[in-house]
Each structure stands twice: as structure tokens, then as C-alpha cells.
Design a protein that fits this description.
about 45% helix; 7 strands; 2 domains; elongated
């Protein structure tokens, strides 16, 4: 009976450890990807959250969009650009190119959200384009948006740190118990030899 309880506890502990390590690895990978996307490298990819439904059903609200600058943008490409006339510094729009026009200053793009009935009113010049959509992942944009808040930042930093510290404390505790156990066995063995 006792052995069955120990084996159940052991299985639970193993599953818990695997789950914690998986979450930890995912958080670390997300952190690395976000940090790498923020590096001021030329033609670096960027990770952005889509918070409107203008590109439904192609890109859902709350999706994570990976974009990268390319040499040439083509008709029907989905691009991300600085939102025209926005007061916010990092306000971006992700829409599809529906027409490319050549003007004296270079190319301009007429864009439109897939869910919108009309083209965007402002034409976009190439210098305003941040990049072309490589792919998107549904729902992960909500997580990215949350990570950018103070509680989210604390979770992405504090939770992995607490997990790592917890795991290390358990390892140290286990090793300390093994050392104490070995010392007791050695002491018993010594006492047994002395009494003989």
C-alpha cells in the first residue's frame, strides 16, 4: 500500500517537473525571440500583436505577426506600416497591398484590410513600410500585448526566475540530504568497527 502511494507521488512529481520545465523553456524562447526582434539590426524581423479585426479572416484579432523588411513589395503582399496621422510613436497597421502606383518620389501602395469594404484613405510610401508579413500565429498577440505591461513583464521575468530558484533549491536540498545520509552511514560503520 505504502509503495503504491510512493509510486503515485513519484509519477506526479515527474509530470509536474516536465510541465514546469516545458513552461520555462517556452517562456525563455518567447523572451529570446522578443528580445532579438528589438535589436536595432538592419532588416531584422519584428514581432507585433494585431489588435483589430481589419484583416479577418486572414489574420485574426489577437494574432502574433512576424514581419521582415524585403527589397520589393508586390501586389497582394500583407505589409505592416506606420499608421498615418497617428499620435502614437509605435502605432502600426497591417493591411494588404491592393494597388501599387509609381510617382515621382517612388512607389506608393494602396492598402486595404481584408475585412474592410473600402481601400485605406492614405497611400503608403515605401519608407513607411516596416515589413512584409512572414506568418502569423493566432492568440499569441494577446500574450505579447500582456508581456508589454508591467504585470506581464514581471511574469516573464519573475516566474522563470522563481522556477529556476525552486529547482536549484530542491537539488541543493537533495544533495545535502545525501551527504548527511552518507555521513551517518560512515559514522555507523566506524562505530560498528570500534565496538568489535
Amino acid at each position: 500500500m505504502m509503495q503504491t502511494q510512493y509510486s503515485q507521488i513519484s509519477v506526479f512529481t515527474t509530470i509536474w517537473t516536465i510541465l514546469i520545465n516545458t513552461v520555462l523553456v517556452l517562456l525563455i524562447l518567447i523572451g529570446i525571440l522578443i528580445a532579438a526582434s528589438m535589436l536595432p539590426l538592419k532588416n531584422n524581423y519584428r514581432i507585433l500583436a494585431v489588435m483589430s479585426g481589419s484583416m479577418q479572416p486572414t489574420i485574426s484579432t489577437g494574432s502574433l505577426v512576424i514581419i521582415k523588411p524585403v527589397q520589393e513589395y508586390k501586389d497582394q503582399d500583407i505589409i505592416t506600416f506606420k499608421t498615418p496621422n497617428s499620435a502614437k510613436k509605435n502605432d502600426y497597421t497591417t493591411h494588404r497591398i491592393v494597388k501599387i502606383e509609381s510617382k515621382a518620389g517612388g512607389k506608393t501602395f494602396v492598402t486595404k484590410g481584408d475585412a474592410n469594404s473600402a481601400d485605406d484613405t492614405e497611400q503608403i510610401v515605401q519608407s513607411e513600410v516596416v515589413g512584409k508579413e512572414l506568418f502569423s500565429i493566432e492568440l499569441l498577440g494577446y500574450i505579447l500585448g500582456y508581456i508589454k505591461t508591467l504585470p506581464g513583464l514581471l511574469i516573464i521575468v519573475v516566474v522563470p526566475a522563481v522556477i529556476i530558484i525552486y529547482e536549484e533549491v530542491n537539488k541543493i536540498k537533495s544533495e545535502a540530504q545525501k551527504i548527511v545520509s552518507r555521513k551517518r552511514e560512515l559514522k555507523k560503520a566506524k562505530n560498528g568497527k570500534i565496538s568489535d
